[in-house]
Design a protein that fits this description.
about 700 residues, alpha+beta, single chain, 6-stranded mixed sheet, 6-stranded antiparallel sheet, globular, 15 helices
């Protein structure tokens, strides 16, 4: 087989000796990765945390690799670089020797561009700190991270083996039993990460490393936790209301492609695509260009691999597991990797396979995953670090007495200098980034301006840090409008890069009100910026306003019982109401979605929805209701204000609207999705329905 490389621009495959990508025509660079038929010696020396392969070379006539200036350099006083092992999107990976304990490790160095960005480095350290807490034997172990002499590094377990992508390319499709055992181990790794709220985001064969266990068989290590999240953006302040696509096209979930927040169910979708690849040797969706693959993930139903590849004689149960993992809607997938893992275990037992209990026993897996004698282990690294700390304590005690007297004076001066500035009700510039956020007391209003633009393509953005107290977990968020531009407010939990909520009003002079928003106690960030979403038209220019101020307040909620509670944009977060207890809600920001569910176990029920009175909601928008459960499951209906004259069944009905009979089982299967859509009875229709503060009412009648 001819050696192939992966294009750095479109991820397409082309011959290694080509100067240009055969898929997109881009000139190949040193960032292209060899993806097939590397020498066996190199495959066996590949390491966790990057796609293994020979080091790229300069595109020169003699095609000779350049000498690496880092060979022999000692990083952070203890990691001596021996040789390069591979290169990925984040940087270069080396085999190194720990100079103090004499054992081998893998060391990833961020690329030069990323290492020079202080915000990226700070985020890298936060991600590495989270990943270093993972200790499952099916997860590559992270020992150390930091910066040294301008280099940002991540020290990891050194592994001998090859990634799953190489296994599939060499052997073709894998047996169902081997596939199930590999995915069971991946689920064990993900289970620990998900319990710590760490989402992988970039599961693919190249991030599943296969070693040979001491008792034979495949031993799995999952790589690159947290680094996909780092690639989302070089700066939290760069967020927009549109989101960003991060991942590998063949294995991305629909919600990732749409730029929505990823949760553990996104990893489950990627696992479904990964299982399909293992079982058949082909991804569930393919196309000549990456955009074609992404489009199919969004719009095309996958085929059951049992029916698509009848010659492989795949077990029907395994095919059904793949299909459930590949559901477009997250609510229809397995809701946790534990559920997926248990389904695979039961399938193996059904097929009469030997017990797989050893794969579920972390103690036995730790024993099977013992590192080679020349590779460092977590215990060895921690013993060395404890020894350093003991030495440091002795040295510190020797100096302590002489420092105390002068330290008391210095301490008083430092406390005085470090006191936070008194909050005076206004933003403190610069506060364009999360690290510069103005601290605002909970419950107090702050005044700010969307003043001088950052550059030609970005408006001013203001970050505020607000501590939500334990007694204030349900809060209200209010933001007054500006006369010349619409605003967006984005809410973050400190330490989490994806926004918990994005609230954009869509038109100038409109205020934002979120009466009841559930936030966990602790520090949060609220970012205010211009809403530059074109909503189907031309993007608005970047505007400034130095004469008008907005007012932002995050305070305890004062809503009455029966009001909707945000977030409630999915079935899992839907507001639950009992029969006879109405709920009042609003669709007050662009693309707002509300989900209301009947109390589980209510029996046979009917929903009744009453929209705002005629004329109070903009005529270009109409309330759309989609039923979940019952005979009309998944069928949307537009509910028009009373006396509007709109009565064109089955898609357009006057308010109040009643659903058919729905069985509210103990699992909670009776729900409604409410949203605003363009009104086809009031042309010309906008591309996106405008938000409005008018209220709707939902109640549940028990039948």
């Amino acid at each position: 087989m001819s050696e192939m490389v992966q294009c750095h621009a479109c991820s397409g495959q082309t011959l290694a000796d080509s100067r240009y990508c055969s898929q997109c025509g881009v000139r190949l660079t040193t960032g292209s990765l060899v993806i097939t038929d590397a020498p066996v010696s190199r495959r066996r020396e590949a390491l966790a945390a990057t796609t293994p392969g020979p080091m790229p070379t300069e595109d020169s006539d003699d095609d000779q690799p350049l000498a690496d200036p880092l060979i022999g350099v000692v990083i952070a006083g203890r990691y001596r670089i021996i040789e390069p092992l591979g290169r990925g999107g984040m940087g270069v990976v080396y085999r190194v020797e720990h100079a103090r304990i004499g054992k081998l490790m893998a060391l990833k160095l961020l690329t030069g561009e990323l290492s020079r960005d202080t915000e990226v480095v700070a985020r890298f350290k936060r991600e590495a700190l989270m990943v270093s807490k993972l200790s499952h034997p099916n997860t590559v172990q992270v020992f150390d991270f930091g910066t040294s002499d301008g280099l940002t590094y991540l020290a990891m377990e050194y592994l001998r083996g090859e990634d799953l992508g190489r296994v599939i390319r060499r052997e073709g499709h894998l047996t169902p039993q081997r596939t199930a055992k590999i995915i069971i181990q991946v689920c064990s790794s993900l289970g620990e990460a998900h319990r710590l709220d760490i989402i992988h985001r970039d599961l693919k064969p190249e991030n599943v490393f296969i070693l040979e266990g001491q008792a034979g068989g495949d031993l799995v290590k999952v790589l690159d936790f947290g680094l996909a999240k780092l690639r989302e953006s070089a700066e939290l302040g760069e967020v927009t209301s549109r989101g960003a696509i991060v991942g590998t096209p063949y294995y991305m979930s629909p919600e990732q492609i749409r730029g929505e927040a990823a949760d553990q169910r996104s990893d489950i979708y990627s696992l479904g695509a990964l299982m399909h690849m293992c079982l058949t040797g082909e991804p569930p969706f393919d196309a000549p260009r990456p955009m074609g693959v992404l489009t199919k993930h969004l719009t095309e139903a996958p085929q059951n691999p049992c029916a698509r590849y009848p010659d492989l004689s795949l077990p029907v149960g395994l095919g059904n597991i793949v299909m459930r993992a590949l559901e477009k809607e997250p609510e229809r997938r397995f809701q946790s990797v534990d559920q997926l893992q248990q389904a695979l275990v039961e399938e193996l037992r059904h097929e009469g396979q030997p017990s797989v209990e050893i794969l579920l026993d972390s103690g036995q897996m730790h024993a099977l995953a013992q590192s080679a004698e020349d590779a460092a282990t977590r215990d060895e690294v921690e013993r060395y670090e404890r020894k350093l700390r003991r030495r440091g304590l002795v040295a510190s005690a020797t100096l302590l007495f002489s420092i105390v007297a002068g330290g008391l004076v210095g301490w008083r001066l430092m406390v005085t200098a470090a006191e936070s500035p008194t909050f005076e009700g206004s933003e403190l510039e610069p506060n364009n980034t999360a690290s510069e956020a103005t601290t605002v007391p909970f419950g107090q209003a702050v005044h700010g301006q969307i003043g001088r633009r950052i550059d030609a393509g970005r408006s001013d953005r203001d970050f505020y840090r607000i501590q939500v107290p334990p007694e204030g977990k349900v809060v209200s968020l209010t933001l007054s409008g500006l006369p010349n531009m619409p605003l967006c407010a984005l809410v973050y939990r400190v330490g989490i890069e994806s926004p918990l909520g994005t609230y954009c009003v869509g038109s100038s002079a409109r205020a934002l009100e979120v009466p009841a928003l559930e936030l966990s106690a602790g520090p949060h960030l609220v970012a205010v910026m211009q809403d530059r979403d074109p909503y189907g038209g031309a993007a608005p220019p970047v505007l400034e306003n130095v004469s008008d101020s907005y007012t932002l307040t995050l305070a305890a909620s004062q809503t009455a019982p029966g009001a909707e509670l945000e977030p409630n944009d999915s079935i899992k977060d839907g507001n639950v109401i009992a029969p006879g207890t109405p709920l009042v809600g609003r669709l007050a920001w662009m693309r707002d979605v509300d989900v209301v569910c009947a109390k589980p176990g209510s029996g046979t029920v009917r929903f009744v929805v009453e929209d705002a009175k005629l004329g109070s909601r903009p005529s270009s928008a109409v309330l759309q209701v989609t039923q979940h459960g019952g005979a009309a499951d998944g069928i949307p209906t537009r509910v028009h204000s009373a006396k509007s004259g709109a009565a064109h069944p089955p898609n357009d009905m006057p308010s109040p609207w009643s659903s058919g009979e729905i069985e509210a089982t103990a699992e909670g299967s009776a729900c409604l999705t409410l949203e605003l859509v363009p009104n086809p009875l009031s042309p010309p229709m906008p591309k996106v329905a405008p938000a409005s503060a008018e209220e709707y009412t939902v109640r549940v009648d028990k039948l």
